[in-house]
Amino acid sequence: MNDGGAIRPAYTGIARYLDGAGGGALEAKRREAEVLFRRIGVTFAVYTEGGDPERLIPFDVIPRILARGEWDSLHRGLEQRVRALNAFLADVYGPQRILKEGLVPAELVLKNEGYRAVMEGFTPPGGVYTVISGIDLVRTGPDAFYVLEDNCRVPSGVSYMLENREAMMRLLPNLCAAHRIAPVSHYPEELLETLKSLAPPACQGDPTVVVMTPGPFNSAYYEHSFLADEMGVELVEGADLFVRDDTVFMRTTAGPRRVDVIYRRIDDEFLDPQAFRPDSALGVPGLMRAYRAGRVTLANAPGAGIADDKAVYPFVPAMIRFYLTEEPILQNVPTYMCEREEDRAYVLDHLGDLVVKLARGSGGYGMLVGPHSTAEQRADFAARIREKPADYIAQPTLALSTVPTLCEGGMAPRHVDLRPFVLFGKNQVRIVPGGLTRVALREGSLVVNSSQGGGTKDTWVLEGDPPPMSQSMGAEGMTQSMGGMTQTLGQMTMGNMTMGKMDFGGKKD
Predict the structure, then answer these.
(1) Using CA atoms, how far apart are residues 262 and 284, in angstroms rounded to an integer?
(2) pTM to 2 decimal places
(3) Is 288 exposed, middle or buried (0-12, 13-18, 19+ CB in 10 A)?
(4) Which of 381, 382, 367, 360 is nearest to 311 (CA)?
(5) Which regions of the chain are under pLDDT 50?
(6) Cα–Cα distance between 378 and 356 in angstroms, integer?
(7) Distance from C-alpha of 25 to C-alpha of 48, rounded to nearest angstrom
(8) Which of 192, 267, 274, 279 is packed most tightly, with the most Cβ within 10 A?
(9) Across the strands, what pairs with 457?
(10) SS3 for 212?
(11) Residues near 136 by Cβ (< 8 Å), separated by ≥ 6?
């Protein structure tokens, strides 16, 4: 709702549709979506549950909607932020100006586990380190978006963004057709063009691109295979590649084939046993040597993780001012760094009000949500912080927006975040409109991570005005009345800021 208590214009079409839909029919659509995703095989694994069980990420059939003007502002902020993060990486592996000028503590970077000394003095093709970034956003007001986290290593979730749209088009075609929704289906083409634009200098002709996966036991394996298939490139594991004369080749039935660009979905430390972990059986011996010789491109660049470290996050606004001489468009959440004595004292005195996170944690693990914690949990975290203060940061809880969501008991407001995917190629940044909306499905839950029971929604960026309220949206086979649905929706959409708080949990599912 807006400040006047009316439904926001972007949601009027949805409100009209839900007014004419039946609750049972909506639930039927949700079940259809589940069958569809299971048939396609859109699953993920949760390592901590033992046996790496594959499960579906719950899908909500009510989309999250952004107006074009809202998205355009986000787009500018995302591009600005990723350019600054890339400049930061080029600097810390090069002249280190920002460290020498004391804007970012040198120790925080040079002794960080995400820092890769092997990248010092080396510039990747095109000067791009963060080829694919996922930037997590939350909303606290009509025009207020905050960046929760930057993901510059191997961000996942884009396949769900694409599959969610496909599911909506199949399940609710009339509703989709009644809106001018900005498309996202061209993301694989944009990704492939971005990767090709960064082919190494030694590449001759059309670059050969591959997606490198750790294998089917990885939690995001579905996405790896999906992207390779959508781009029309090979999905390979480390054993499928070898290095000869500082050149990477792929084993094929027709003999070795040179590889120019590797979209690697494998962590730095497993990429090359000669450069990182010697016990890694997932990587390719000599890969980093070929990379530094300018004969292959790795996306993202090894060592890019230093830019998305939670302890480095508070300095991103300063990076934007330092490298771009611009004011940040997207804001950071205020962050307390527990290694600082003053910050640590404040955090220990206000654990019940803050969200405490591991500086290098992910997936919503290793986190304390102060307002929902017990005295025992707070005491446990206080001891952990005192023992290893540099491992923890803390942030205030904010009153966040909610969106209408189909839950077990009917429609209800649920908190969400948004992960747009930013592609940074040679002299061009591409962002398909929208991104992956994650939703905390459990009532009162403040965690959106799929590993913590979160679900997803389709994210619509409307190109124009929504259909008028008087226009029929089509029933999609739904005949049962849901009287009062519009009013209910109006009570739940943006502007309802009193429903509690949301954490800033790890976002690297």
Answers:
(1) 12
(2) 0.87
(3) buried
(4) 360
(5) 50-52, 470, 478-509
(6) 10
(7) 35
(8) 192
(9) 60, 437
(10) strand
(11) 147, 148, 149, 150, 151, 417, 418, 419, 507
